[in-house]
Amino acid sequence: MTVGDVVRLVEDAAPSDLAASWDSNGLICGDPADPVQSILLAVDPVTTVVDEALSSGVDMVITHHPLYLRGTDCVAATDPKGRSIHRLVRAGIALLNAHTSLDAAHGGVAEALADRVGLTSTVPLEPDPVSPDQGIGRIGTLVQPITLRQLATDVAAALPDSAPGLLVGGDLDAVVERIAVSGGAGDSLLQQAREAGADVFLTADLRHHPASEHLENGRPYLLCGTHWATEWVGLPPLAQRLEEDARSCGASLKVQVSHIVTDPWVLRLSTGSDRA
Ligand SMILES: [Zn+2]
After folding, report:
1. What is the 229 CA–ligand 1 centroid distance (Å)?
2. Disulfide: which of 39, 84, 231, 246 matches 253 by Cβ 3.0-4.6 Å?
3. Would the pLDDT of 192 be above 80?
4. Cα separation of 30 and 85, whole Å?
5. Is residue 152 within 8 Å of residue 195, measured between CB atoms?
6. In this structure, how many other beta carbons lie within 10 angstroms of the beta carbon of residue 195?
7. Ligand 1 center to 109 CA (angstroms)
8. Radius of gyration of the chain (CA)
9. How many Å lie between the centroid of ligand 1 and the Cα of residue 68?
């Protein structure tokens, strides 16, 4: 396979037509003609992930987040992003990203998160206008109703671990069944989750005022994971798909998923123990 072949496989898995208009998806650095035998998947194109790519000797890195969401006029090695570009180019490693395209796609981040929660009969929370069976977020039903407390416990166990863990807002003893999910920052989807009849909305990065004002009106109750954890779940299915798609083209591709936690937070301490 070449870098160009992998770009096409990722386009099949996460069509750029599904991406938001403000977004950036695609090849960030690398020569489409270069050969690729191994790929590293990660959420963020940060320094620790570049370190891992160099030490593991992969030919290509595919991240969820873009390196330059708003574009740039400088890739000099004078800041962390420019340094990453230089290190990758010198090592002959291509960098590609699939962001809101992968969020929305079949088998993408939203579907993977719904699968982790154990939802059935899922549909997009915000359907794509052209492909309404794909889109942002998913809403579906648990196999059987459970309490918010039990759901939170199950979801916490199903997500990869990072320091902040999972925050829960709502009536812990309430029985819930219909669950909406959206990986990454979900403030903007609170109203859609309510209008779709969700009992609970699992997302990340919820801020005090939107969350507090939302809960004043009752359901959906809120599960707030971390941005990294709620999006990382989309990587293992993508790894499997890329390896299978390469195999069906008669090529061999080794795709590994990074386990480096790229949430900014490395420690969570319970507060208030000093009550002197
Ligand atoms: Zn994100």
Report:
1. 10
2. 246
3. yes
4. 10
5. no
6. 9
7. 10
8. 19
9. 13
- Integer Cα distance of 174 and 148 in angstroms: 6
| 160 within 8 A of 180, measured Cβ to Cβ | no
Tokens 């998947």 belong to which residue? 41
pLDDT of residue 17: 96
Residue 95 C-alpha to ligand 1 middle, in angstroms?
A: 17
Q: Per residue in 102-159, pLDDT tens?
A: 999 999 999 999 999 999 999 999 999 999 999 999 999 999 999 999 999 999 999 9
| Ligand 1 centroid to residue 148 C-alpha, Å | 25
Q: How many CB atoms lie within 10 A of CB 24?
A: 17
- On whether the CB atoms of residues 7 and 92 are closer than 8 A, the answer is no
Find the 81 Cα to ligand 1 centroid distance in Å.
17
Decide if 9 contacts 32 (C-beta within 8 A). no
Angle formed by the axes of helices 47-56 and 80-90, nearest 10°: 10
> Measured in angstroms, how far is the CA atom of residue 275 from the centroid of ligand 1?
38
Question: Identity (one letter) of the amino acid at 5?
Answer: D
CA distance 104 to 19: 8
The share of the chain scoring above pLDDT 70, in percent, equals: 99
Six-digit token string for 223: 């599960």
